[in-house]
Amino acid sequence: MTLTLYNTLSRRKEEFKPLVEGRIHIYVCGPTVYDHAHIGHARNYISFDTIVRFLRYTGYRVRYVQNITDVGHILDTGEDRILKGAARERIEPMEVVERYQRSYFEDMDALGVQRPDISPRASAHIPEQIEIIKTLIEKGHAYEVNGSVYFDVRSFPEYGKLSGRRVEEAEEGTRVAVREEKRHPEDFALWKLAPPEHILKWPSPWGWGYPGWHIECSAMASKYLGETFDIHGGGVDNIFPHNECEIAQSEAATGKPFANYWILGGSLTLDGVKMSKSLGNVLGIKEALQKYKPEAIRFFTFTAHYRSPIDFSEAALDASTKGWERAVNPAVALRERLRSPNLPAGGAEALSAELTEIKTRFVEAMNDDFNIPVAVSVIFDLAKLTNTLLAAEPPVGRGALEAVNQLYEELAGQVLGILPREGVGQSAANAEREAELIRLLIELRAEARARKDFAASDKIRGRLKAIGITLEDGKSGTSWRLG
Predict the structure, then answer these.
(1) What average pLDDT score do residues 102-119 get?
(2) Confidence of residue 476 (pLDDT cuts 50, 70, 90)
(3) Cis ω on the peptide bond leading into residue 395 (within 30° of 0)?
(4) 63: phi > 0 → left, psi -120 to 50 → alpha, else beta; which?
(5) b vs e for 420-453, b when ≥16 Cβ sit within 10 Å of the residue's Cβ?
(6) What is the architecture of the domain spanning 317-482?
(7) How far from 365 is each of 41, 232, 280, CA to CA, in Å?
(8) Predicted confidence (pLDDT) per residue in 390-440, tens digit
(9) Closest CA to 313 of 268, 278, 280, 377
(10) What is the mean pLDDT of the chain?
(11) Which member of 30, 156, 195, 438 has the lowest number of beta carbons within 10 Å of its beta carbon?
(12) Burial level of 249, CB count in 10 A (0-12/13-18/19+)?
């Protein structure tokens, strides 16, 4: 089962061949930490989290680097996003960075997004950025004007190979305001002269200033992953100019390919409209988590291929929540059944072929350009099998149930991250305490039924149902599930 992926650079699906056998170096453009993260961030970083989880599951040693942009992300107006955030809140720029970097990681932790191996900050890598700029000037790919340094796009004939845009088609004013001092309108800033009142600035050979947006990723990716590495990920919205500029400046400086494979995630809209602060339709992750379980949000992002656009709406999330419950409730019931001391032994051998076939189909789907929606459909097949086993009479043996549980934990838990987790919003001890309380209520209900107090029995069932817990009676006893 060979891993193939769609390489945006070549515009075709390719067999993946790592630079070093068994190892993968991957860089994903991280957030600019000037405000709370929104649901668009959730979609992108859940996708790459799942991709990295799968690569590790299949045996690769992965080094995952995701940067933190805390300087140099310039708006169309020429303002730095961090400085704009500081002015908005009337606090120091680095206070903005610390506040929203913590907020970002809180959101990612809540969503089950595993932290990158390295999360470098742009402001901590100014020397590396300066060295690349000096090399570009020496090689004739960049020029200094009045304390600012610009990349000469016309010096790099392959500029546009990722986005497909030609230099002649570049629009003036993309991302940053056109400055008369540039040789060509499409040239982009590597280093900007800082006016006296500018807060975020560093000394350089060209005077006090600050880096442009694009140079940070080239510096940090090459430092931690090498001048050429395996996979560069990010969002489709950043193909031009950000990713295009990364390639140009990196390859012009080293003379080597920057990243061998480019995998870029699709965009997210909110009720069919692109999210925009000017439209007031930005949905924060924290807001979404107040209404939906984190696993349900992850499940929603899996309803579309990672490269495809997806539309977030209450109706879509409600439907995804129901789908998530159908996928994972059998696993919750299975965990509960395995707590029973009265299960017969054995039975795993009879299921070996069926479980192997399910795992094979799951891995094949993920190996096909990380086709998570198809992989999720395999989880539904596993759920169907689990329900059948739980309802079987006589009861299925412990060995069989443990084998199914192990596969659930691997595929839905370890790779997809959609199994209910302990420790999110509550301690593991609290989660176990709640489970014990449910089991106590089940015992009290059994006692009520034994003395034919059906009113009390129905009341317990009804009250549990009202808080989202369903009891299911069978010959082997009563089990419970969420939903």
Answers:
(1) 96
(2) low
(3) no
(4) beta
(5) beeeeeeeeeebeeebeebeebbeebeebbeeee
(6) Up-down Bundle (1.20)
(7) 24, 21, 38
(8) 998 888 899 999 999 999 999 999 999 999 864 333 444 455 567 778 878
(9) 268
(10) 89
(11) 195
(12) buried
Counting residues of the chain whose pLDDT is more than 70, the rounded percentage is 92
- Residue located via tokens 């839905």: 412
- Whether 4-265 shares its CATH topology with 317-482 is answered no
Q: How far apart are CA 50 and CA 413, in angstroms?
A: 11
CB atoms within 10 A of CB 410: 14
Domain boundaries, the chain: 4-265, 317-482
Per the listing, tokens 């940053």 go with 176
Distance of CA 300 to the CA centre of its chain: 13
At 318-375, the pLDDT tens digits run 999 999 999 999 999 999 889 888 888 877 788 899 999 999 999 999 999 999 999 9
Residue 53's SS3 state is helix
Distance CA 471, CA 469 (A): 7
The residue to which tokens 């977030």 are assigned: 312
User: Do the beta carbons of residue 189 and residue 159 sit within 8 Å?
Assistant: no
148: left (phi over 0), alpha (psi -120 to 50) or beta: beta
Q: If you write DSSP's letter for every residue of 375-410 in order, what string do you get?
A: HHHHHHHHHHHHHHHHT-SSPPPHHHHHHHHHHHII
| CATH (residue range 4-265) | 3.40.50.620
DSSP 456-471: HHHHHHHHHHHTTEEE
Rounded CA-CA distance 68/326 in Å is 37
Is residue 152 packed enough to be buried (19+ CB in 10 Å), middle (13-18) or exposed (0-12)? buried
Q: In which band, very low, low, confident or very high, does the pLDDT at 192 lie, cut at 50, 70 and 90? A: very high
37-80: pLDDT as tens digits: 999 999 999 999 999 999 999 999 999 999 999 886 665 556 67
